[in-house]
Amino acid sequence: MSRYFSSFFPDSSTHRLVAAVFFIALIFRLAIFGYLYFTLGEYHGLAWVDGSQYVALAKNIASGNGFSESSVPPFLPHTLRTPGYPWFLAAFYGAFGNFWSASLAEAVLNSFVPLFIFWLALKLSGNSRIAFVAGLLTAVDYHIAVHTLTLNTESIFVFLAVLSAVFIFRYIEKPDILKATAIGLLFGFGALTRPLLYYAFVPIFIFFVFALRSIEWRRRIAGAACFLLIAFAITIPWMYRNYRVSGEFTLSTLGWFNMYTRMAAMVQAAASHQSYTESLQVLVGGLNEGGYISRADEHELFDVKFIPLLRERAIEILKAHPRETLLVQINSVQTLFTQDDLLYILNHSHLLPDAKRPPIPLSLLVMQKGVSAWRDMLPYLKGQYLIPYLMRVVWIVFFALAVLGVWSLARSGEYKQKVMTWFLVALIGFIVVVSLPVSASLNARYRIPFAPFYFIFVAAGMVHIFGRTHKLALKTGTHTV
């Protein structure tokens, strides 16, 4: 084990930094797990957001009822969620009869993610300070820590995505079929966990073929083809299963549900000067009144038979409001980079009582009213409701640092380092675009799949500024020892 560790971190001067990052990440995650589980219990403490659905699927898998969310027979086949994470949970439930063991394993597993980020940052920059800061930011980010140990797909998706990036850099350094195979396996199982990686298969193939100019043409084609065949071989059987069940050849039938209940609902809210919740109620209620569904509950729309209807209605709303559609897209992008959920996490964990919130959040209110929206917000900007706005300033600063970090890394280093830098930038951009339909519902959770990579650039920007400030202090004689 120590030999393998030394092969990743051959410079002994970094070993203490690496160990510090790992133990900080582990202690932070175990502390959060301990509080959530022992204070709130397994279900309320650990089954956040979509956790209840994954728990239901895992129980049925472990009990031999198939991939179904039904609690009683007949166990109807489920097509919205991908099977990767339910299979993971089912293994723990089958072995131990509980889900807290899976959460504890996730806490330990994801303590290695900051180490992978340390390694990537060190490879990209050759600077141990950048690597340490990137690893530390990943270790202590409460969004990553909470959502990778609660019962949601981020728990294993982030680990698979970051490990994939490690193997991709290894492949750039020295390509071979074995590494291409490993990348194909990681991307395939990653796509079975969250479908967004499926849409990256072809771009990754193109990257392997055209970006690695130092590699002989035939070897590029062979490696890229190996990756693509393995990734598709893992995902296509599940897509065929969904086709047999629902008539949709897809990893998940969640797409148009999200477009209607998230994107279209937010566009409608911006156009009608309603809150997002009110807009969603109107859209779902309209389907109920039209006789399409039996009750005004969005969960009834999970049935695959509603996909054509949801597609038609969503496109109709987006076409009817092009200005609001564009504004919602722009707002979704800034949300992904600057939204902060610390207050939500503290409220959900019962560490703070629920704050008094405005009926319409500021970002949506600005789309509706422009600058005058601040007048409506002033009565709420006090006490704990200041937390998201203060933290938003931090994330805006982080964004500026990340842009600076990309610039500093892209203009220095060897060709392979620059290739990987732009690959990670493109990967972040890709995840942002694919996440737009759901990120309209304003949640920092959707930043988590790219947040570890993002922290590499934030760290590079921080160290770049500190280095320039340090040099300036030395020149002006203001530096003291």
Automatic annotation (TrEMBL):
BP GO annotations: lipopolysaccharide biosynthetic process
Q: What are the subcellular locations of this protein?
A: Cell membrane
Going by the UniProt record, its keywords in alphabetical order are: Cell membrane, Glycosyltransferase, Membrane, Transferase, Transmembrane, Transmembrane helix
Primary location class: membrane
Identify one Gene Ontology CC term for this UniProt entry.
plasma membrane
Membrane topology type, per the record?
Multi-pass membrane protein
Q: Where is the Glycosyltransferase RgtA/B/C/D-like domain?
A: 82-239
Task: Show the stretches that span the lipid bilayer.
Answer: 17-38, 99-122, 155-172, 198-215, 222-240, 386-407, 419-440, 446-466
What GO molecular functions are on record for this protein?
pentosyltransferase activity
**Protein name as it appears in the record:** Glycosyltransferase RgtA/B/C/D-like domain-containing protein
Q: Which organism is it from?
A: Candidatus Sungbacteria bacterium RIFCSPLOWO2_01_FULL_47_10
